[in-house]
Amino acid sequence: MRESAKRLFGDPSEPLSRPNVFGELFKAFISPMPVIEEAVNWVLQGQPDPDISVHMRMLNSKSFSAPHAAYNCIQKVIKNSPKSKSLARVVLVSDTPYTVALLKEQLEGVAQVIHFDYELFIRSQHNLSEVLSKNYFKPPEKRVRDWGSMPRWVAIVDMFLAARAKTAVISGANRRVGTTYVQLLAALAAARRLGINGDNHPLKFYSSFQAPLIAEGLAGQRGWGHTWRRFGGRLSCTNQTRQCAETPILPYAWWDGPWQSPLPRDNKKMLVYGVKVLESGQVEEDSLPRMCRLRKATLETLQLVLPSCKQLKTCHHT
């Protein structure tokens, strides 16, 4: 089973061997509705697909450090990309409009910024589907800070727009970098680019960290759906000013031990599931089978010896 898993998911000790499983599944089974595709095409206005997509999960924060770190990451990607006569086309996606405006200002003269302004889209369209109305599928009040105030269909348009990226997807955040949303976005983008027009340069996925997020290593990356949670332990690098880290398209799981440095609290949580993860990131191979054996219900066999009717004095003579 382990060898079969390696053939499917790659060898955990060799990051470049890991295939884009979720991206290929996403590409094969999920496609945008015509109204979503129409919105994506409205943003692009017949122009080429974007070169870079940037997703900033800011939770309504007006922090300057996160967008500035992302700006430096964008510059790094542009510098390392094949030279072009025109400015790089960069899609900006964020739950916080302030961040989009700030990055747009910083990127002036550096890149051509693309952003889905859903309110302008609604105003410019006639006979618009109810699905794309301003009040359709609004987030509940308790989720506004987490998801933003825009209708949820906007996030779908943003995903399929950002998945058109040709060169790179960059994830930045106020607190936790590499969310499930941007992981799937990057995976889909990578799957779409594979083999297009003989392009031999695979799309890359980057995580942008500002100094406060990595002052104590990656200990703050604690969300279960976040790429870097498994690397927040004592082996993670500290006291960095910023980081534009190349990130696996297929996120590492808890059993991909050689590349991990988990937090002690995560070790305890995994132990509840029967997986013992050492501080070094290594998984104790016998821990799960041992727990399964301990929890396996045992079948006890009892031999019942029934007394004879004479002993019970219940025999009847005919």
Report on this structure.
It is a single chain. This protein is an alpha/beta fold and 318 residues long. It has 2 domains: 2-252, no CATH class; 255-290, no CATH class. Helix content is 36%, strand content 13%. The protein contains 13 helices and 7 strands. The chain has helices spanning 2-9, 21-29, 34-44, 65-80, 97-106, 118-124, 144-147, 152-162, 180-193, 211-214, 264-272, 287-295, 309-312; strands spanning 52-57, 88-94, 111-114, 168-173, 204-210, 215-218, 242-247. The chain has a 6-stranded mixed beta sheet with strand order 3-2-1-4-5-7, with helices on both faces.
Round the mean pLDDT to the nearest integer and report it.
87
Computed Rg: 26 Å
H and E order: HHHEHEHEHHHEHEHEEHHH
CA-CA gap between termini = 68 Å
Report strand %. 5-15%
- Count of helices? 13
- Structural class, judged by helices and strands? alpha/beta
Number of domains in the coordinates? Answer: 2
Taking the sheet with the most strands, its summary is:
6 strands, mixed
Overall body shape: elongated
Spatial order of strands in the largest sheet:
3-2-1-4-5-7
Number of strands: 7
Spans with pLDDT under 50 lasting ≥5 residues? none
Roughly what percent helix? 25-40%
